[in-house]
Amino acid sequence: MTLPETQTLILEQQGAILHVRLNRPDARNAMSQLMVTELIELFTALAHSETIRGVVLRGEGGNFCSGGDIKDMSNLRLLANQEGSNAAYVAFNRGFGTLINLVNQAPQVVVAVLEGAVLGGGFGLACVSDVALCLDSAKFGLPETGLGVIPAQIAPFVVQRIGLTQARRLALLGNRFGGAEAYRIGLVHELFSSVDALNAAIDEVVGQIRRTAPKASRVTKSILHRVGHVPLDTLLDDVAVQFAEAVSGSEGLEGTMAFVQKRLPTWAE
Asked: Is the whole model's pTM more than 0.90, yes or no?
């Protein structure tokens, strides 16, 4: 895969793993329109990539993402006043929904590294990660209602991640909370007290991604996304066929042979 040129992202490919850093540290990696556009372009390309198997998403400068860029909102307000229409607001907000759904549906294993500010849109990105690693000093929150706006595109993914009861409490009160609470409610999977421990965990997770069969991982993620969206009998029928294809396919044969021969399979780097 050829990596795109970006201004707000730092991209570094290490074999089958792509490290993506949100790179607006002076703004605590707030999401500008340009950053949203660049992330959409990147994850659109990743949807068709079979060489990238994992994406590690992190913020530059000690913050993950502090939400939407206030300066962009001011520019949108001027544009809306000039046009006499809210179309610019609608397009910007819906664009973020497109982005977060692309990340959610990405065939790769998406690892979110959460530290510093994890607010608004950053909170939404955390909710669509497959693996969420968190520094205990991170600060989470859905501050939208306190600003007179709403977590429009984020809300469905928050509910999917932590359930309706917790989502109602956090979204309606706009509470800020730390890594321990994020872990307690199931938003993050692992909690760390130091950056060194966090970095070590990233290396471990990346190693685990490399040991999983590429196609089997992609198919497994697609199955999980279908749960609750198709009738159960239909899903079970479909996955039985997929299981047979996996067992008789090249990955299944190589995985079985590697197990018998007590060696790593060929896809493990």
From this structure: yes
Q: Record the tokens describing residue 89, joined without a space.
A: 């607001």
CB atoms within 10 A of CB 165: 10
Residue 101 has a pLDDT of 97
The CA distance from 116 to 43, in Å, is 24
| Residue carrying the six token digits 């693996």 | 131
Q: Could you give the CA distance from residue 178 to residue 215 in angstroms, rounded to a whole number?
A: 36
How far are the Cα atoms of 139, 196, 238, 245 from residue 39, in angstroms, in the given order? 23, 27, 32, 33
Other Cβ atoms closer than 10 A to 120: 23
Residue 269, pLDDT above cutoff 70: no
Q: Give me the helix-helix angle, 70-83 and 87-105, nearest 10°.
A: 140
Q: What are the chain's domains? A: 9-209 (3.90.226.10), 213-260 (1.10.12.10)
pLDDT, average across residues 41-62: 96
